[in-house]
Design goal:
single chain, 16% strand, four-stranded antiparallel β-sheet, 388 residues, seven-stranded mixed β-sheet
């Protein structure tokens, strides 16, 4: 610490150069923070996917429907603990940009399937008593200011009613949250399947897909195969797969997000490494006579190396840690505003990525300063003093 003033004065020798390098590092770590949050948001489905849950859809496509009668047949299979279903509704609330998923479900079975959802018992009771009742996740409720007791109109884009009308109205009877300490999708709008099936004008008795919970997660693959075999060669063949694989398939349709983010970050940090390394190298070259003078006054080669590495690490720490702090504050601000909740229901920087960021700060400082530090360590007093 006693040499910190000396290191600081060396950095301040060329204020503009130091400032530009500092800002380059800061921007790189702000980008790192935002990309970490985006990657987490896209992969959150994998985090909340249950190892004991299987998704069963039509073999041809997810938009193809399955008979509702499949539920009872799958429930009889050995190893199956619970079966429920959902269907994509695809409606519009007020404006097409106000997107959130709407699904007709069986209330108790669906919430038994997803125990991480927290809906008060009295609201569940009210939902079962109200034919047009619906519940909504906390994120969507906060986004639109939904209140219990409110009547919510949804303009259908797929499902018309028997009279040909496309305006569906639901009575909001509950708002669900994620249970404490658990992660859950709190953006969904859920209403009763029995009401939906009786009111829609066509395709009665069909559902979009099934959720199957197995008693033993280790048998998930075996149960999935048994389900597909049961409906093989039928008019509605199925494709059953673990929930994690189902979610990963959705993610892969948009590309390998992780690989894309890694490629971007690698390019950014390699560029910043060159910039920081060049700044420190140029600074050392400009001060070779001073380094020789310090050695003549008794500074050892190790101390000369440490001073140069300290300069590099201080520059990386100032820019990198400030960038991480700024990205953390900005991401939290975006999350709190709810502006991205329709597209990225969960948006935050994981603690693990923050720790990785701190490690990258240290690595950047050490690697960028290593070659200049070795140059400062190896130069002799006479050679240094002869430099102009």
């Amino acid at each position: 610490m006693k040499f910190l003033p000396l290191i600081w004065s060396n950095l301040m020798r060329k204020k503009v150069r130091t400032f530009l390098t500092l800002m380059s590092i800061l921007v790189a770590f702000v980008l790192f923070g935002f990309l970490s949050a985006i990657t987490k948001a896209f992969n959150v489905g994998l985090d909340i996917a249950g190892e004991d849950r299987i998704i069963v859809r039509h073999k041809v496509s997810l938009i193809q429907l399955l008979p509702e009668s499949y539920k009872a047949r799958m429930a009889k299979l050995d190893g199956v603990d619970l079966v429920c279903h959902a269907t994509w509704f695809g409606g519009i609330y007020q404006d097409p940009k106000n997107f959130f998923g709407q699904f007709p479900v069986e209330p108790e079975e669906f919430f038994d399937m997803y125990p991480e959802f927290d809906l008060p018992a009295e609201q569940m009771k009210k939902w079962k008593e109200t034919r047009t009742g619906a519940v909504v996740g906390r994120a969507t409720a906060d986004r639109f200011g939904f209140k219990i007791g409110q009547r919510i109109p949804i303009q259908a884009t797929i499902w018309s009613q028997k009279d040909g009308g496309r305006l569906w109205e639901f009575d909001l009877v509950g708002i669900y949250d994620a249970k404490e300490g658990q992660t859950a999708d709190t953006t969904m709008f859920l209403f009763r399947y029995d009401y939906f099936d009786e009111a829609r004008g066509g395709e009665e008795g069909t559902v979009g897909w099934y959720y199957v919970r197995v008693a033993d997660p280790d048998r998930a693959g075996e149960v999935a195969t048994a389900i597909d075999d049961m409906f093989a060669n039928s008019p509605y063949e199925t494709k059953a797969e673990p929930e994690g694989a189902f979610v990963q398939g959705f993610i892969n349709q948009m590309g390998d997000i992780g690989a894309i983010m890694q490629a971007v970050l690698t390019a950014v940090f390699f560029t910043i490494l060159l910039v920081a390394g060049n700044t420190i190298s140029q600074s050392v070259r400009e001060r070779l006579r001073e380094i020789g003078a310090l050695k003549a006054l008794g500074f050892t080669n190790v101390q000369a190396l440490a001073l140069t590495l300290g300069e590099s690490c201080l520059l990386a720490a100032a820019g990198g840690l400030a960038g991480l702090a700024l990205s953390w504050a900005a991401v939290n601000g975006v999350e709190s505003s709810g502006k991205l909740s329709a597209y990225l229901p969960i948006f935050f920087i994981p603690e693990r990525d923050l720790l990785i960021g701190v490690g990258l700060v240290a690595a950047l400082g050490l690697i960028a300063g290593l070659l200049p530090a070795l140059q400062a360590r190896g130069i002799g007093i006479a050679d240094a003093l002869r430099r102009e």
